[in-house]
Write a structure and sequence with these properties.
This protein has 42 helices and 41 strands. It is an alpha+beta fold. The protein folds into seven domains: 22-75 and 145-297, no CATH class; 305-444, Mog1/PsbP, alpha/beta/alpha sandwich (Protein Transport Mog1p, Chain A), CATH 3.40.1000; 451-597, Mog1/PsbP, alpha/beta/alpha sandwich (Protein Transport Mog1p, Chain A), CATH 3.40.1000; 605-771, 3-Layer(aba) Sandwich (Protein Transport Mog1p, Chain A); 783-899; 937-1118, no CATH class; 1130-1243, no CATH class.
């Protein structure tokens, strides 16, 4: 009996452990007359998903309806709505990429080899994803398609009705929501349960039908949002649809296997609705395999429908809609996937404008023919020449892929484009009856040789061109690039017509009209290779800036063109004629620019992220409707997270933030730029400050200036400031307005044409822009210091945290805070404020421009004897006040009770504030020298003293009594000095590759940045004034301090003699100069060395020049060529630091060539050219330097333009120099990208 009992319990135990033991389930009960079925799928073509049983096929064949997660027959239409069809990256090669605006926007080139190869070999990844889902490395272990699509194909071929169990759009939205992080709070981020699960474990669970294990793996591997939105939420939709169908029909439902098990799985949800679900265990046999083979061999008849391309050049019949997957300016790629029969149809059109480059259809056909063998997959079965209905020549290719599937190509060639028709499918499908229907339907539509008045759908321009033309709209263009492209050819007079329309939206820069017209016309002539007999004339067209130009090709053809600028729009109109053919004047005479019209819906929109409303052009298509729906669902679904975070006060809405975005018109490609700042809730700015800030920012925009006074408005709590930004040499302007409401500041800007004025969409959006009633932040123009204090002292931990964070990281102290701040200092509760916040307040208090803080600071200093941190903050605050009284207080407090911190850098941080107010520090000495007994004060105090002596603000006699102590400290520092350990920022090892002199000067520059002293960027800045104090070595400071006693004290002379033995240049060079200034003998050798050595010459001269003793520089090297070579040489040495071949010997010899005048928008001077010494076999390289004209005879303000200019051997030396000068002339032209010859700009 015992044995019998054990065996009796075994199946019970097994069942309990495997609640969901199989993939196929029978649905019955609840009054159903016939069973329906539920099947768990796997979305791959791997064989693990193809263990199909006789029961599987019996179930599939027995039902009325087949339901899948979504209906594959509708996928392409739905993917178009969600924007998932675009696949343009494969064609983003050098031909298509946007380079510099002028060089590329009207560019025309023949397609390169790579582009043609891609045209032949490319099948969009979309096709594999829709039809096959093959893994390239596992093709021999995969089936013809994935199991979901097999079920769809089988159902369709068997005449079953196929439905979606869930709306595709809803499924896509849930998929996107599933990818969001579970929570955005830091505390909960780390609590997510998902871990990596090897796919092999999932495969094993699926193979055995073990849904219990699959459920466990799914929950472990999924994030919370993934499980919620991708699994659980969708299960409800599936079950509701299944339940609805079961009221009248039987159904076979196929969903991902992970949806079936679990308490919230499809099985249990159906059981909760009253249905009985029972597992159906599989029995694999040959009958199932035979049934599968029979179904796969079936072909479902399709109906071909004629389709026209956009400009009606040709038509073709396809079993369904052709969907665009690539829509670039010169290539259009459309596909249709026949999901039932597993085939695809492609139509590709590549534009190349042959007549511009003497490339005709025959030559292009030969070029393509030469590429077929290497780029057609598998084996070419047949290849032959074909002819279209109107005589276009072409090539037909049939090939067999490695998997045994046939593919079928037909290429047709014209002088303007290549058109490819392609078909692929399983087995011989691509050469069967459907292939015949497809290829025989190709029909090119010739147009009569007559002219029409052409204008695009969106208007903008009109012009007479041949009726037989091609028009392309580049939907992929953003704020910059080519928008429209029209080309036509009149055989009667062999004339090529071209029209190109481009845009450049900019919000902080305006270029000169004449410059742009000239450079654009030059680039067109160069790109199209019409570079002989060039003629140009600046004109007006409809009162707009324009240029008409012409050039001749070496083959004799003539190009005539006109470029017109209208706001952000650039229009090129041109013709190309044979030499003896008369130019078509009617073409140019018919050109007329017209207002662009909006083809989409104009309506008021509300931006809930930026809190404004405006009149906008809104594309009303499936994609935009989907995005709007997703936005609504997202806001609804994520609302709970926001509420949760608000409840926890875990968001930083009180703090500063800034964002920007741009709106644009899909019809005009005009943009409006919007920037907003949300200020910290405690911050303050006055209206006058906003105006000053605006004026300051506008002045920084190169040559742009406000064309009128800034107009101010105040309405409904909103302050508005409006102006127009112009450039004297441009017809363009930027409409600009700034709005301030509560805690927000907005900038809105758009570019327009001043001749016509703001118009169309831009005007509508800009003028209608208004802020919503939403209150964001606290009023920025209201002083809220009392609120800050209250929150700093609040018992509410959230308010206290916000206030502390604001003080320590965000807000600036305003002078209007002064009264409240002084009251706070005397408040007994001041010491209850967080110490870091108190320290920051005390430091920032010095910027309030009131001496009323001095006495409270003194009192607090006495209170904080146990906190060096707060004492130093008080001292730093007094230093920032920068008055004689505050510096006297600083001195008094420090002398009487110096905070001891044991760290020099902390004291240096305080003393550094004094460096730009040395005049106020002259009373500090000699008393402050008593602080040097503390090690952390020694260097900061001596550094300050050295500066005061150099500036003659302290008489050396004042410190004579302390001379012995200073000398003792100097001796100690000298003894401790280790030349092998230098306090130099960065990786000093990077300098090891340099020669000794260069390495030492590199260390000098790295240490104190003195090489910037003559750089125009830093001249006369406070940054430079502080360099000496911040960075020079302490031994140099001792030398400055002790030098006045050199002649009178033998011990000091001996000290300097010992200093002379230090060979490090960052110490030695300043001391040599110091001795020379004081007429001390014995420095000639080093002095001459620094003048002679290329690595030190320019730097040494700059140091002498700063001290006004440059007249002592050796005359032999005192010339501009010598300084140029020195600057170039050291930059060549520095280049070694980043060289990949550091062991290669660097040839530093420079050979002067010549100098020529050079000019650009902001600079005028000379370019100096030098040949760089080279080793045998190396290319010749030039170094180029620019020196700006100035009143100074010599300068080390040398801009090294290039160290790597490779002269063109086909040009003369003069021509190469002129090329460099031409490129230099484009410097500061924002829209020019200078890549030729690696011209880079760097200043010594």
């Amino acid at each position: 009996m015992r044995i019998i009992f054990i065996f009796f319990l075994l199946p019970v135990f097994f069942t309990a452990q495997n609640k969901y033991p199989t993939l196929l389930w029978k649905i019955s009960g609840k009054g159903l007359n016939k069973p329906s079925y539920l099947y768990g799928t796997m979305h791959v073509s791997n064989r693990v998903a193809y263990h199909l049983s006789e029961e599987f096929f019996n179930a599939l064949q027995s039902v009325d309806v087949v339901g899948l997660e979504t209906n594959p027959g509708d996928w392409m239409d739905n993917m178009e709505k969600t924007g998932e069809l675009k696949q343009e990256t494969v064609f983003s090669n050098s031909y298509l990429q946007q380079r510099d605006f002028y060089g590329s926007v009207f560019d025309a080139k023949l397609p390169d080899k790579k582009l043609l190869q891609n045209l032949i070999s490319y099948d969009p990844d979309l096709i594999n994803g829709l039809l096959y889902r093959r893994n390239g490395g596992k093709e021999n272990f995969e089936e013809n398609t994935y199991i979901d699509l097999f079920i769809f194909q089988a159902a369709s071929k068997l005449g079953k009705k196929v439905i979606s169990l869930e709306d595709f759009i809803q499924a896509e939205i849930h998929s996107r929501l599933a990818s969001l992080p579970d929570d955005e709070t830091e505390e909960e981020y780390g609590s997510r349960n998902n871990i990596f699960i090897p796919f092999s474990k999932i495969e094993d669970a699926y193979r055995t039908g073990n849904l219990d294990l699959l459920d466990s793996l799914s929950k472990k591997g999924n994030s919370k949002n993934n499980q919620t939105y991708l699994i659980n939420r969708r299960n409800v939709f599936f079950v509701n649809t299944i339940d609805s169908v079961l009221q009248k029909n039987t159904i076979f439902s196929g969903v991902g296997a992970a949806h079936l098990p679990g308490e919230e799985g499809v099985i249990e949800l159906l059981r909760k609705k009253g249905y009985t679900l029972e597992p159906v265990f599989p029995k694999n046999n040959s009958k199932a395999d035979k049934t599968r083979d029979e179904i796969e061999a079936m072909r479902k008849p399709v109906t071909f429908v004629k389709q026209l391309v956009t400009d009606s050049v040709f038509s073709v019949a396809v079993p369904g809609k052709l969907y665009s997957v690539v829509d670039l300016e010169n290539i259009k790629y459309k596909v249709f996937a026949d999901m039932v029969n597993g085939s695809f149809y492609s139509v590709v059109r590549l534009k190349y404008s042959g007549p511009l480059f003497n490339m005709n259809a025959s030559a292009m056909q030969a070029k393509m023919d030469s590429l077929l063998f290497e780029n057609i997959p598998g084996k070419i079965i047949s290849k032959k020449e074909i002819t279209s209905n109107n005589g276009f020549k072409g090539i037909e290719v049939i090939n067999k892929t490695r998997t045994g599937d046939m593919q079928h190509y037909q290429f047709f060639f014209t002088d303007f484009d290549i058109t490819l028709f392609k078909m692929g499918g399983k087995g011989d499908y691509a050469i069967g009856p459907d292939a015949t229907s497809f290829f025989s339907s190709i029909h090119f539509h010739p147009k009569k040789e007559e002219k029409i008045l052409f204008t695009p759908k969106t208007k903008g321009f009109e012009v007479q061109i041949p009726k037989n033309h091609s028009y392309l709209k580049n939907s992929g263009v953003s704020s910059v690039g080519l928008v429209e492209d029209v080309h036509a050819y009149a055989k009667a007079n062999s004339t090529y017509f071209g029209i190109k329309h481009a845009v450049y939206n900019d919000f902080d820069y305006i270029e000169e009209d004449t410059f742009e017209l000239n450079i654009l016309s030059s680039k067109v002539l160069k790109s199209y290779e019409f570079e002989e007999n060039i003629k140009k004339e600046l004109i007006k067209h409809q009162n707009l800036p324009a240029i008409q130009f012409s050039g001749q090709h070496k083959n004799g053809k003539i190009l005539n063109g006109k470029i017109i600028i209208k706001g952000v729009h650039y229009y090129l109109f041109f013709t190309v004629n044979e030499l003896n053919t008369q130019m078509d004047q009617s073409f140019f005479e018919s050109i007329k620019l017209t207002p662009i019209v909006s083809t989409e819906i104009i309506k008021e929109i509300e931006d809930k992220d930026f809190y404004f409303k405006a009149t906008d052009e809104v594309s009303d298509n499936a994609s935009t409707r989907f995005n709007e729906l997703y936005r609504q669902v997202y806001e609804k679904e994520m609302g709970h997270l926001k509420k949760k975070k608000e409840k926890k006060k875990d968001i930083y809405d009180y703090d500063y933030r800034t964002e920007r975005k741009a709106y644009y018109s899909p019809s005009s490609n005009e943009y409006v730029n919007i920037v907003y700042e949300k200020f910290n809730n405690y911050d303050y700015k006055s209206n006058d400050e906003f105006v000053e800030l605006l004026e300051k920012n506008l002045k920084g925009l190169h040559s742009i200036y406000p064309s009128n006074t800034i107009k101010k408005y105040h309405d409904g709590g909103i302050f508005t400031y409006r102006t127009n930004l112009k450039d004297t040499a441009s017809s363009r302007a930027i409409a600009f307005k700034m709005l301030i409401k509560n805690g927000m500041r907005y900038e809105v800007s758009t570019t327009y044409d001043t001749i016509i004025g703001l118009e169309g969409w831009s005007k509508g959006f800009f003028e209608s822009f208004r802020l919503t009633d939403t209150v964001i932040g606290l009023d920025i123009i209201r002083i809220k210091f009392d609120l800050l204090v209250n929150d700093l002292l609040s018992s509410d931990t959230i308010k206290r945290r916000e206030a502390n964070h604001s003080v320590q990281r965000s807000i600036n102290m305003h002078k209007f805070f002064a009264l409240g701040f002084i009251e706070l200092l005397s408040n007994p509760r001041f010491n209850e404020i967080n110490e870091d916040s108190r320290a920051q307040l005390l430091v920032n208090g010095g910027t309030l421009e009131t001496e009323k803080i001095i006495e409270p600071y003194k009192k607090l200093y006495q209170q904080y004897t146990d906190s060096f941190y707060l004492q130093l903050s008080l001292l730093k605050g007094l230093a920032y006040l920068k008055t004689q009284k505050s510096y006297d207080a600083f001195y008094e407090l420090l002398r009487n009770d110096a905070p001891l911190v044991g760290q020099e850098s902390i004291i240096s941080d305080v003393f550094q504030v004094l460096n730009d107010s040395l005049e106020l520090c002259k009373k500090f000495f000699p008393s402050m020298l008593t602080l040097t007994r503390y090690e952390e004060y020694r260097n900061p105090v001596y550094s300050l003293l050295a500066q005061l002596i150099e500036k003659e603000l302290v008489n050396p006699k004042v410190i004579s009594a302390r001379k012995d102590d200073i000398l003792a400290d100097a001796h100690l520092t000298q003894k401790r000095y280790n030349p092998g350990v230098k306090n130099i920022p960065g990786n000093i090892k990077a300098f090891e590759n340099l020669d000794k002199a260069s390495r030492e000067i590199a260390e000098v520059l790295a240490l104190n940045l003195e090489g910037l002293a003559n750089n125009s960027i830093f001249q006369n800045t406070s940054f430079l004034k502080n360099l000496d104090a911040v960075s020079r070595h302490e031994l140099v400071n001792y030398a400055v301090i002790l030098m006045p006693f050199y002649k009178s004290d033998e011990r000091i002379r001996q000290y300097f003699n010992r200093l002379d033995k230090i060979k490090s240049q960052h110490i030695n060079m300043p001391i040599v100069i110091l001795k020379h200034e004081n007429k001390i003998q014995g420095t000639d050798t080093l002095f001459n060395y620094y003048c002679t050595n290329l690595a030190t010459r320019a730097y040494f001269y700059s140091e002498l020049e700063k001290r006004k003793i440059d007249y002592k520089f050796l005359k032999r090297y005192k010339n501009q060529e010598s300084l140029n070579q020195a600057v170039i040489s050291i930059q060549l040495q520095f280049a070694k630091i980043y060289s990949y071949d550091k062991d290669k010997k660097q040839i530093d010899s420079l050979y002067p060539i010549e100098n020529i005048p050079a000019i650009n928008r902001y600079q005028k001077g000379k370019l100096y050219f030098y040949k760089i010494g080279k080793e045998r076999g190396e290319k010749e390289k030039w170094a180029i330097a620019f020196v700006q004209n100035s009143d100074k005879e010599l300068t080390v303000d040398v801009d090294v333009i290039s160290l790597n200019f490779i002269p063109d051997k086909t040009k003369t030396q003069t021509e190469n120099m002129q090329q460099a000068a031409s490129e230099f002339a484009l410097r500061f032209r924002k829209r020019v990208s200078q890549k030729a010859n690696d011209l880079s700009y760097s200043s010594y």
